[in-house]
Amino acid sequence: MEGRGCAKTPGHGKQVRSEICKELAGTGRSGSPLRWRPHYDRPSCDPTFIGRMSMSSTGTPAGKETAEQALARAQAATQAKRFGEAHGICKDVLSSSPDHPSALALQGVIAAHTGNPERAIELLDRALHCHPGVASWHANLCSLYRILNRVQDAVDSGKEAVRLAPDNADNLVNLSLAFTDLDEHKNAIACLLRAIGLNPSHADARLALAQNLLAHGEFEPGWLEYEWRNETEAGRGQLPRITSAPWNGMRIPEGRVLLVGDQGYGDTLQFARYIPLVAERCKEVILGCSAEMASLLSRIPGVTFCCHRWNEIPSHAAYTRLSSLPGLFHTTLETIPNCAPYLTSDTARRTKWAGRLAEVAPRPTQRIGIAWSGRPTHPNDRRRSLRLAQLAPLAATKPGAFISLQKPFPQADAVNPGDFPDLIDFTSELTDFEETAALIANLDLVVTVDTSVGHLTGALGKPVWIMLAKANDWRWLLERSDSPWYPTARLFRQPRPGAWPQVISAVAQALSVPLETAPGSGFR
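and the corresponding structure tokens:
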């Protein structure tokens, strides 16, 4: 008898969507979010008192507190993301003791959290000048240098953090990320193995190891470690309590299997190729995904029912996450299901867009879609996203008409339309992935950063050029310019972190050749 899919929990009734099932990319991903480690040393001198000097009823001076006590309050405020309050407390401490190292370091942490990594580095450097040898501050510097693509500085700071605290697994994971940025993958893996040796349950280290293995094409051990993404701080609690059994790939000829789109839009699009394989092993497939994707994905062969709210999910015998399917099917580089197109656009919408494009970019004009920015909350967004003005060299090649696929259109780019003249913008009409797919179906090429637009174009079997930051996500492997996941994709890689001008120049040069004859253009 099939069990009810989800018990009534506080998460019941929420949408099954990538915003709820966020990308499980904690520390260990190539562009993972920083995990700040504030360090507070007990003052070696007499404590500094701040505040009013009134007396409490017990005779203890009320309002008097040590700098250490004040900073404990500031730390709590920082952890609660009350950064203004925390900054104010640190400022009070520093007004009495301008070189208080812990106050400087915590202000650095606050600056990092509020989007000012340059100021954060300055403050942490001052803190270390006043009080050398604090491993956690060096670890934070390692993460900050990575944000600014100062990769050698990141490695140096990471090494110092490990030297000072050799048994701290977090610091080893941090250093592994810096080594990855420098293409020193052997050193990165060595750091991760040491971290796992210290703490076998360190989910971030296990996930980072998975991503290194997968990037090298070592899929069998990589998929095993990849399941640790669900145990990271970012991954835990993404799903409500589900009372059906976890699916292990077994055949259930008379039962339903629930597949949950548990990660970002791009991941859902990439792993949706496995749905027909699941359908071969069970009677019905229930797909849980975001509302923006439901219409498009519901046409995949084998999908019986598509829902985007937990309380819509019918009873089912077993469930699994879409992102677990490659491991369940023992995928290798040679067995990736890459029979693109495995997604199709709606005929009526496709016809509508054909008419719209005929008005603004009539044939024989080449139609090129572009997307330059990803979701701002993505942990790697600072590295992967561009400003529209940076793509101006592409417009200068005049290979045809450029159509924006950027959704939403960033306000910062909208104020200077002259940065990319003649850009055709339909993004206000791209209400869901179905609409975007129908527009892409009428294009000749899509040029994009590593975002869901690239996955969607590849899944539709359309030519796509993907501009990759360094270090890139594991799914694009290393060095190669093609992708076994998407036969129509061509990859343009940064030679070093932050080197977007070289990537854009290479894309512009490729666009200067007629698309039909460009070698490796992605056209088949």
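(Above: one complete record from the training split.) The first strand starts at residue 49 and ends at 50.
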